[in-house]
UniProtKB/TrEMBL annotation:
Ranges annotated as spanning the membrane: 148-167
Organism, as annotated: Celeribacter arenosi
Lineage, highest ranks first: Bacteria, Pseudomonadati, Pseudomonadota, Alphaproteobacteria, Rhodobacterales
Protein name listed in UniProt: histidine kinase
PROSITE patterns cross-referenced by the UniProt entry: HIS_KIN
Keywords: Coiled coil, Kinase, Membrane, Phosphoprotein, Transferase, Transmembrane, Transmembrane helix
PANTHER family cross-referenced by the UniProt entry: SENSOR HISTIDINE KINASE, TWO-COMPONENT SENSOR PPRA
Amino acid sequence: MLTVIFVMAAEIMIFVPSVARFREDFLLSRLERAQIASLALLANETLDMDLEDELLANAGVYNVVLRRNEIRQLVLSSPIPQQIYATYDLRDASGFQLMRDAMSTLFDPEDRVIRVIGDPVKEAGLLIEVTLNTEPLRMAMIDYGYRILLLSAVISLFTAALLFLAVRELLVRPIKRVVGAMTSYQEAPEDARRIIQPTAKVAELSEAEYALRSMQTELTAALRQKERLAQLGEAVAKISHDLRNILTTAQLFSDRLEMSEDPAVMRSAPKLMNSIQRAVNLCESTLAFGKAEEPAPRLTGVRVSELVEEVIAAERIGVGDFDLSFSVEVPATMVVRADPEQMHRVLSNLVRNACQAIIATGKPGEISVSGREDEAEWVFHVSDTGPGLPLKAREHLFQPFQGGTRKGGFGLGLAIAAELVRGHGGRLMLDQSDEGGTDFSIHLPKGFSTISPDVGRGQDAAAA
């Protein structure tokens, strides 16, 4: 329908020039006939009146005037039924004049007598002038207009049919195919077989299909990972439940160690008790949470130097006789506003990763933990002299199951650490990772809280 409308609109735009050209050709044909009739009379001056009337009737004019050799001569003549209405000179008429005169003739229903002036054919004289009725001209123009209208309708319908078939083949069918692929994918987004395969020939549709395939591929992968995470979460919850029971039993036995008089046992017992208590708390948090995010931190005043020493002491036991040294450059008086258990997990994950990276090389190394503060934030650096992170780990850093830094690792340590730091309103950043080693930084905002340097780990900042 739109194609028919547009084609008809285009035909209307060319209708006026076409009708004007038809009117001009009609009048020129009358001039040509009149000239032939006048030349027949000039060749034989003895023509009778009946033959002269027949020549005028065949020419479709009332009289013919020729100008030859600077002489204006009435060659053929007959009675004119009314006064001449207008004179039209076709010799120097502009396109606008021709269109204006054509429209005035077409929309004037009254039969009038007009004079037409033009150049003789084959330059047979200087000028030819005829008088004729407008009714035959008007009827011929109306008939020509109807024929143009009919031809335009046929062309528009034919064009519309071709355009419809082309649009249906090039656009409608591919779009229906895309819609069908989206509907099919919606029914089972985990099924990779339902991902669309681009086949469109139109560039824009092809781009849309490739974009849809990319989105479906990413969504399918995300759904699969989500399903794996859900299964893993369920498994972790079951393991945490049983592990909590085991740790509770171990905690009961470790309580008796406090009554031992062995100096070595007396020194190790508090650390063992703290480690078991953290494990129990972690299991309880996992069971209570049961989702893919950490609970909100319980902010207290934490003396970081004590926390770092505790983490490093635990890692020294795991390192054993390997040539690995630790250095701590955290002010003893630095107290931060944080959750002590979550900060212990953050530092433990970072230090343990550094230990594993250095041990994997088989070469001696050093791990350094430093801290500083300014008016806006506390900043801690955990750096090592290991081989640096692999490219894949740097590309998917802090993403679970994708940012593993060693063979057999799952990439959970950094992801957990980053999430815990974000829970404090801070950020965990990778500042350096190359052959010279790796450096992570923890940024914790101070906000509007002020913590006294005398606050010990575990004390509430509000109470301070």
